[in-house]
Structures are given as structure tokens and as C-alpha cells.
Known about the structure:
This protein is of the alpha+beta class. Helices cover 15% and strands 34% of the residues.
Amino acid sequence: MMPMHNTNYTILSNRGVIEVSGDDRKHFLQGLISNDIKQVSPTHTIYAALLTPQGKYLFDFFVIEINTSIYIDCERSRARDLLKKLAIYKLRAKIDLVDRSQDFQIAAVFGKNPHVPFKLQERTGHTKRISESIVYIDPRLMQAGVRILSPKSKIEKLLNTLPISKVNLKDFDVQRISLGLPDGTRDLVPEKSILLESGFEELNGIDWNKGCYMGQELTARTKYRGLVKKRLVPVSFKGKAPTPGTPITVGRKQVGEMRSTVGNTGLALIRVDDIASTPLSAAETIIKPQKPNWVNF
């Protein structure tokens, strides 16, 4: 069980790293991702997504600057797919794309005041270098804690020097789900999910003023025409955990679908008009939605 009232860390073995280098690295990414690459600096990291031309989710990731390269903290099982997708758009851009997942590791530090051991400013995205590692406050939410990008041979040494406790990935998942944070394709369906249904606006994953990027037109239309009909929210339940993809119903009416679970909690995509309906069921399990304080609907 996760130690309470402590600062904890876990190695995120499910995360990969892609390096984007070359003179055109920022210009190249600016035309593709949902956030503004101009915000990325040695002291600031962003959260962003890559969409289909129709504005549907493909990949989400964190964008970090180190020296003359951009590093992308992404879902490890799909790092090669992301690299291949980026390569399609390379054309004549002066960039190099390399999968660095074998060289680097990602860790999460969370719990009580996780920014304090690193002397980070209390603001989302704040980033600093400690020796050969990059530490940054999760750009989505302060409550999500701190993330670390480090060479594999150095990360445990750094973490072991700090007054924090090692826990397992499940403990991190409990916090992630309680905050309503999606975890890649465990909660988002490629070529189907919509960013605004998944909290990307409130989680600082979209810049409305940066100009065009792939999928921008539909994303903007969804916002300004008020077309967000569903939202991804935490749910709690007793008994058997519903499997991802299980339909959520009110009586005979389908109103949503389950996503990832851990213990007796999970995330679910539910129609906004039915979130307060009772009882909500996923197969034989009764679920209770819990709106995070950052969600706007």
C-alpha cells in the first residue's frame, strides 16, 4: 500500500522517449501538435497531442527541451508508431528522429509536495536540470506531481538521494485515476477520441492562439459550437472491475464506456447529460462518477 502523507516515486516503465534534433525541430513540430512549441524551453515543458487530419486523437505526450534537442515523453508501446508517423511528415525538414527508449527512463514523483525535493517553482510545467536528469512539474496539473527524464543508468541514483519512498506503478495509477488523467491508449482510442472530451483544454494540452496544426479546425469547431457531449471522468465501484470498453448504461440506454481501472476505481467516458443519472451500470457493476475539481461542464 502506498505510504500516506509521504512523497513517493515510481519508475514509469510504460513510457518511452523520442529525440527530435536538427535546425527545423521546432518549426516541424509546431505544424503538427496541439500545443505551442514556442512555450518549450529549458525551464518549461508542455503537454500536447498529435491528431488525425479530422481532429481525432492519435498520440499524447510531454515535450521537453534539452540543449539542442526536443525529447518526447510518450507511451512506450507506441513510440515506434509515433516515430514512423512523424517521419511521414518530415519531407525536407532538417530534423533527425531517434527512438531513445533504450537510453532514457521516466519516473513520477507524487504525494506530499513532490516539487520541494527538487526546489521547483510551484507552477505547472516548471523544468530544471539536475546533473544529467531533467525534472519538471507535470504541465497538466500541479496535483499530478513531478516527472523525471533521466539516463537509465542515473535515475535510481538521483531518486535514492532524496527523502522519498519507492512505490509501484499501481500506486501511481490510483492517483492518476483519482485526478481524472488519461494514460494514452488505456483511456483514449486512436482515430476516435476527441481532445475536448478527454480534458485536454483544462489540462493545458491545447493552445487556441498558436495557429494551424493538424486537426486544428475540427478541435476549434468542437469548442466554439459547444459540441462536447461526453467527458472522461473518474468512477468508483464495488465488486468486479468492468473491463475496458464495457458499455455504461442507465436502464437500457447506453450512455458511455469504461476505460482503465485499478482497484475499485477507473476512468469512464460518459455523456455529460447522464453523469448524474442513477444507477449507472457497467455490465453487472454499479459505478459512481466523481467530477474532478478541474473539469468544466
